Amino acid sequence: MTEPTRHYVPTTRDQLTGWYDAGEVPRTDLFFVAPEDSEMGEYSALMDAADHSASLPGGDGRRMVLVVDTTGLGAQDPIAWRLVLALHVDVEVDAAPHSELAWYATQEIGPLLGR
């Protein structure tokens, strides 16, 4: 059995809204993968993506990271929305760089975006 491949994709609210409305996440070179198969490795990838999301143009002051499962997909295949696993977001605007992120289940993303 193939182990899942999780990608941590830094994003902004506007970018995420576009992906949500389109029903897919476009492939990009801008994603983070755990350096090792452990909770600390996953956390490291999440926080690296969060740090990067803070520098994306058009952000609203909140770090946002979409977690997707790319198991079995080709390198150029778009990622269908059904492969989204979760969203991590700063609770406060301009939160401290190493503050914890809130976790949102996939069914909570639409309401978070006002959809």
Summarize the structure.
With 115 residues, the chain is of the alpha+beta class.
Please give a handful of descriptors for the protein shown.
115 residues; four-stranded antiparallel beta sheet; 24% strand; 28% helix; two-stranded antiparallel ribbon; 6 strands; alpha+beta
Please describe what this structure looks like.
The chain is α+β, with helices and mostly antiparallel strands. It has one domain. Helices cover 28% and strands 24% of the residues. The chain contains three helices and six strands; from the N terminus they run βαβαββββα. The strands form two sheets. A four-stranded antiparallel beta sheet has the order 1-3-5-6. The chain is globular and about 35 Å long. The termini are far apart.
- What is the rounded Rg? 13 Å
* Overall geometric form: globular
Q: Give the topology string: H per helix, E per strand.
A: EHEHEEEEH
Low-pLDDT runs of 5+ residues are none
The whole-number mean of residue pLDDT values reads: 89
Helix content: 25-40%
Going by helix content, strand content and strand pairing, the class is: alpha+beta
Beta-strand percent range: 15-25%
Number of helices: 3
Task: Please provide the count of β strands.
Answer: 6
Number of domains: 1
As laid out across the biggest beta sheet, the strand order is 1-3-5-6
* Largest sheet features: 4 strands, antiparallel
Distance between the first and last residues' Cα: 36 Å
